[in-house]
């Protein structure tokens, strides 16, 4: 049966998710039709009702990206996977008899990507910038991976405080910091993480001061367009082990495909190499 799928987001013309999902369908014998649905190009677009519109139009499910993940969460009837609801944002939705159910494959995908790139290594102390939709998922993943402490910064202090409070509810060691404390905090951390939009093609720059990237062990940038952001380039120049936005993208895409089709496609070196070649 043909499954109608899509990606809902803003300014997603460079996304390769349609190519990934179609490729996974081809190699696994599934049948999907995958579309890019850019909210900025739809007249009168209202994300608070649009997911129900897609369900009524016969879509089987959709991926969701910036800036609609937390809005998507509010439209759902429940979680597809136990525990994903505590994150407070969904990037994968399934439609079933007029109801919407969600999962967060940023959360599961980051865990898989981290373990793939840094097997047997815990995150240590981590400074993370960005407490929005993807930030919430990465924060929970880092804590479950055994981070010694997570320091959160967001220019929206209320957003950082909200995420910190949620993490504290589950007993995770977390603390919010102010902008002026970023340089000093960086020096005491093992990992540096960017979960803001800074670094994207249309939003150049870095959320973290590049001149303070010196002694940390590893870094991750959720941005993958471009793959090599100013932040990750500076980290690589200092000899840090780097996880790119591609690592998150490929593993969350694999998890989403399994949710849509029930087929688990292994993350082989050939698959990862092929998909990496699609990015610019």
Topology summary:
Blueprint: E1 3-9, H1 17-28, E2 32-38, H2 47-56, E3 61-64, H3 69-74, E4 78-79, E5 92-96, E6 99-103, H4 105-117, E7 125-129, H5 133-144, E8 149-153, H6 157-169, E9 174-176, H7 182-187, E10 191-194, E11 218-221, H8 230-237, E12 241-243, H9 245-261, H10 269-276
Parallel strand pairs: 1-2, 1-3, 4-6, 7-8, 7-10, 8-9, 10-11, 11-12
Antiparallel strand pairs: 3-5, 5-6
In short:
The chain has 280 residues and is an alpha/beta fold. It has helices at residues 17-28, 47-56, 69-74, 105-117, 133-144, 157-169, 182-187, 230-237, 245-261, 269-276, and strands spanning 3-9, 32-38, 61-64, 78-79, 92-96, 99-103, 125-129, 149-153, 174-176, 191-194, 218-221, 241-243. Strand 7 (125-129), helix 5 (133-144) and strand 8 form a beta-alpha-beta unit.
How much beta, percentage-wise?
Answer: 15-25%
What's the SSE pattern? EHEHEHEEEHEHEHEHEEHEHH
User: Mind telling me which CATH architecture of the largest domain this is?
Assistant: 3-Layer(aba) Sandwich
CATH fold-level label of the largest domain:
Rossmann fold
CATH class group of the largest domain:
Alpha Beta
Q: How does the major sheet shape up?
A: 6 strands, mixed
Low-confidence stretches: none
Number of strands: 12
Shape: globular
Read across the widest sheet, the strand sequence of neighbours is 2-1-3-5-6-4
Discrete helix count = 10
Radius of gyration: 18 Å
